[in-house]
Amino acid sequence: MSVFVWIEQFNGTPVSLSWEVLGKARQLADARGTTVAAIVLGQGVEEIARQAIGYGADTVYLADDATLASFRLDPYAAVLKRLIEEHQPAILLWGGTSRGRELAAAVSADLGLGVAAECLDLRLDDEGNLVATRPIYTGNILTDVVFRRRPQMATVRARAFPMPEADASRSGEVIAIPAVLREEEIPVKVVGFEQAGTGEVSVAEANIIVSGGRGVKGPEGFQPIRELAAVLGAAVGASRAAVDAGWIPYKHQVGQTGKQVRPDLYIACGISGAIQHLAGMRTSKVIVAINKDPEAPIFQVADYGIVEDLFKVVPALTEVLKERLAR
Amino acid sequence: MHAIVCLKQVPDTAELPKVEPADVMQGTLKVTRVVNPWDEYAIEEALRLKEAHGGKVTALTLGPAEATEALRAAVAMGSDEAVLLSDPAFGDGDAWTIGYTLAQAIRQIGQYDLVLCGKETVDGNSGLTAATTARYLSIPLLTCVIKIREVDFTAHTITVERLVEEGLEVVSAPLPAVVAVIKGINEPRYPSFRGIRTAARMAIPVWGMGDIAGLEADKASEAAAAVRWTNIRKPPARAAQCEIIEADTVEEQARILADRLLAAKVI
Q1: Under a CB-based contact definition with an 8 Å cutoff, are residues A89 and A151 in contact?
Q2: Closest approach of A63 to chain B, Cα-based (Å)
């Protein structure tokens, strides 16, 4: 009755959230006195299987096949379903990415299981059952989720758990397993891909986010924000107002209809702090608000505030940090 | 072309902070209810497909009697038909009982090309129901859809752009399919005056458990739920006391802020 983890990869590169989840799985398995198995699906991904052992897996089930090269729900779900039926894990964890959420949901429906989505914490009760904590009502309420059937499954939000240290000396077993569906049985075809801007940090995974709102006044107003983000190695975020005005693409939006984020540092520039925005970033470790309006609600959740024009403060902060961080 | 839009009535997002744990437990939220914002994109996309290809749009929801209002909102925007699934016997379902029930209802509605829905709801936030519905219907699922590139209702194919973490993925699938859309796919329209009048007059059918052919009550009811919520609570309040950094010059303010952030070890 071990703990299983799906290790996600894209184009042969593992998704770092998978290692965060694997680190937590290791903890839970140690508490239960059981083992961790990682599941790696893809093509030419043996190296990821070896890395999974370093990050804490005892066993890796590796399905390496052309039909699994790009993520597609049907062939992936078919392999997962067979593995679950064969091995009956107690717990199965997934990174809460677009693919992880979809795959976990589909597998749960196929097998009549439950899944707790977007979890912020996981623990075991006295009987060794999984208790998953997740936000509902867009972060305004927390609930624990308990399960009626096994495996007990959860998808985990990025940065909910720390990145584990890899240990190259760990040993484990890689077990090759076959794909289940043949190409002609798979209805969905991936016909193209456009990479996101290179070198761009995504808001979901960022340690630091510098965000702009209505106060940036236009698309060019994001330039000083990008410069500060570059110095900090941060992602660029935005409020709904800035996205709806067409100043910056939707993928940057933080908040209720954008991404829910919890970076170490969130710098809100010219963002008033509508509750829909606060819902998306309120759990950040440290929040800085830069806004001309001292009455802006953003100051109520901020740790540090500067009541001043962002076009003066942001470039000044960029200059200071360039010196301090020697970048 | 027949598009079925699955939608949910949820609390108005501006009132979410008013939601109390006790209200969630008892299912008695004291809030204004609206169409889930993500679902408005699904309604809009269905209407655009109808305008481009002809055909009709059916709005479908599961909920209490009041959820009719969400369906009327979809009709006011331009949906042609609406069905409310409502029965005390459904109880407090989850993504599996609701996905199963929606799938059975969709089968009963009959011939359809697309099932459209939003990415997730602002109350449950799990984003599971599109997937469970698709699996119970045994049809392809396309999530994170930010653009429908091509759809051919004669050849029964669809090509969409999906916004995933690494970029835009272009995917083709046969129809019918479940398409879960995200913000950015369109700008939902406001209801027209005529639409509001039509919606107000429309007699919206209500299907209970017994009205859905082939529905197995033990799969659709709360008793079949796969998960249970417990220890429902407010998240810990932010302890933050905002320190307003003041100084004679902006440069000095920036220096003080940098000191604070370095001391907090967040940069």
Answers
A1: yes
A2: 22
Question: Hey, where are the domains in chain A?
Answer: 3-185, 203-325
Please indicate whether, in this complex, the C-beta atoms of B183 and A250 are within 8 angstroms of each other: yes
Q: Say how far apart CA A49 and CA A51 lie, in whole Å.
A: 5
The answer to whether the CB atoms of A320 and B165 lie below 8 A apart is no
Which CATH entry fits the domain spanning A3-185: 3.40.190.10, 3.30.43.10, 3.40.50.620, 3.40.50.970?
A: 3.40.50.620
- pLDDT tens by residue, A264-286: 999 999 999 999 999 999 989 99
3-state DSSP: chain B helix, strand, coil percent, rounded to 5? 40, 25, 35
Q: How much is the pLDDT for A199?
A: 67
Strands (E), chain B: 2-6, 9-11, 33-35, 56-62, 81-85, 114-118, 141-152, 157-164, 167-174, 177-181, 206-207, 227-233, 243-244
Per residue in A174-216, pLDDT (tens digit) is 999 999 999 999 999 999 998 876 667 889 889 999 999 999 9
Q: What is the mean pLDDT of residues A20-44?
A: 97
pTM above 0.90, yes or no: yes
Give the type of residue at B250.
V
CATH topology of domain A203-325: Rossmann fold (3.40.50)
**Band of residue B264 on the pLDDT scale cut at 50, 70, 90:** very high
Task: Please give the residue of chain A at the shortest CA–CA distance from B96.
Answer: A109
Q: Which of B38, B167, B243 sits opposite A257 (nearest CB)?
A: B38
A244's CB contacts (< 8 A; 6+ apart) are: none
- Chains A, B: CB contacts under 8 A, how many? 262
Which domains does chain B carry? 2-224 (3.40.50.620)
| Cα of B33 to nearest chain A Cα, Å | 13
From the candidates A99, A110, A133, A140, which should be mutated to test the interface with B, based on the most B CB atoms within 10 A? A140
A3-185 against A203-325: fold identical: yes
The pLDDT score that the predictor gives to residue A201 is 83
Query: Measured between beta carbons, which residues in chain A are less than 8 angstroms from residue B230?
Result: 143-146
Per-residue pLDDT at B238? 80
